[in-house]
Amino acid sequence: MNKLIILILLMSISPNVLASDEAQKEALLKKAEAYLAEGQLYQAAKVTRKAIQLFPKDSDAIQLLAVIEVAEDEIYEQMQLRDSVLDAQQMNLKQKLDMAQTWVERSRELYEMKKYREATLAAEEAFKYDPQNVNASRMLDTIQAERIKEGQTESDQLRRIYRDEISEKIERYHEQLDEYMAGERWGMARFTAQKILLLAPEDPRALKKYEEINTRLQAAKQL
User: For every one of its 223 residues, what pLDDT tens digit does the chain have, with 9 covering 90 and above?
Assistant: First the structure.
């Protein structure tokens, strides 16, 4: 009986309404991609989540959010690692343990707010001050169990897949870059290096090669 009622309700939805929602979703995704291209990750994620609210199973929206979150995580990790390493070097053991506990408590607060991704990052931050922190480990287990319960592991898997795909793409670009440099095709080499740096702005190999390429190009202009 319930299935019949649902079927009737679905049939009663106007095709124009569905088309309107689809158009709105596409507009939101284009806007999110523009924000992503500009490096405005918070805005990109916010707009993408609006699209997912319209179509929770839409693969394009889910994949775009995964890419954005990978970028957010990498920036966050780089900033926190840099700051925490500098801070940790100036702390005694008690200060380090206190700071680790502060991050665990922050993780618990985020967990209670159902901000599981942020809670995970906060718990991981504790290990930078206390690598053997038991409370942080337990917090991560609790968060993971809740995410599985609420079905958020699919998003995590997508993010891992996209992180791996990005790494593979960077390696392919490095192979192409080495070939172009070996053949002294400096224009193509510069373009390829730029593609790597778009995906990984801090890639040390790409930065070093990019500097060498620019030096070669400058020298060629003076001939």
Answer: 445 444 444 445 445 545 677 888 889 988 888 888 777 777 888 888 888 888 888 888 888 888 887 776 666 555 555 555 545 667 788 888 888 888 899 889 888 888 888 888 888 888 888 888 899 999 998 988 887 776 655 556 556 666 777 788 889 889 999 998 998 888 788 888 888 887 777 889 999 998 998 888 887 666 5
Taking a C-beta distance cutoff of 8 angstroms, is the pair 70, 78 a contact?
A: no
CA–CA gap between residue 198 and residue 206 (Å, rounded): 10
Type of residue found at 36: L
Are the C-beta atoms of 28 and 51 separated by less than 8 Å? yes
Residues 50 and 29: their CA atoms lie apart, in Å, by 9
Rounded to whole angstroms, how far apart are CA atoms 51 and 68?
14
- Flag whether the pTM goes above 0.70: no
Helix, strand, coil in percent for the chain, rounding step 5: 85, 0, 15
Cβ atoms 29, 48 nearer than 8 A? yes
- With 0-12 / 13-18 / 19 or more C-beta atoms within 10 angstroms meaning exposed / middle / buried, residue 43 is middle
State the burial class of residue 73 (Cβ atoms within 10 Å of its Cβ: 0-12, 13-18, 19+).
middle
Backbone angles phi, psi at 7, to 5 degrees: -60, -40
Q: Residue 110 class from Cβ within 10 Å (0-12 exposed, 13-18 middle, 19+ buried)?
A: buried
